[in-house]
């Protein structure tokens, strides 16, 4: 368990939000631009048959790490939530997963709605 896991980006988020906001990502439209060095041009064949995809991404703008519980958004009126039960990017590994609507597939460019990752966010291979 002590060995690091290396992940390499296969693409990047383009568009959508430029700044981090905690809520209301449901209508945000962004694109995933996949790197042709990391994936072949036919990597997305058949993907347009799906209504939604799950995207793993790296919280690249966050450096703080939280291992235990905290009040969401620092609000003491809200109950404590463990690092693995909250939605904060302040977590042990800075990885996020988002299920979003797949709007279009154009080669190695995917258009999605509801991805809670900001413009420039790396999308790792696995």
Descriptive account of the structure:
The chain is an all-beta fold. The protein has one domain (9-124): Elongation Factor Tu (Ef-tu), domain 3 (Beta Barrel), CATH 2.40.30.70. The chain is 0% helix and 35% strand. It has no helices and eight strands. It has strands at residues 9-15, 29-34, 52-58, 69-70, 81-82, 95-106, 109-113, 122-124. The strands form two sheets. The protein has a six-stranded antiparallel β-sheet with strand order 3-6-7-2-1-8, with no helix packed on it. β6 (95-106) and β7 (109-113) form a beta hairpin. The protein is globular, with a radius of gyration of 16 Å. The model has no long low-confidence stretch (mean pLDDT 84).
In short:
The protein is mainly beta and 126 residues long.
Oligomer, anyone? single chain
State the helicity in percent bands. Answer: under 10%
Tally of strands: 8
Order of helices and strands: EEEEEEEE
Largest sheet: 6 strands, antiparallel
CATH homologous superfamily name?
YaeB-like
CATH architecture: Beta Barrel
Tell me, what is the CATH class? Mainly Beta
Give the overall pLDDT as a whole number: 84
Rg, nearest Å: 16 Å
Determine the strand fraction and express it as a percent band: 25-35%
- Number of helical segments with 4 or more residues: 0
The CATH topology comes to Elongation Factor Tu (Ef-tu), domain 3
Q: What is the strand arrangement across the widest sheet? A: 3-6-7-2-1-8
Ends distance? 18 Å
Protein structure class: mainly beta
- Judging from the principal axes of the Cα atoms, what is the shape? globular
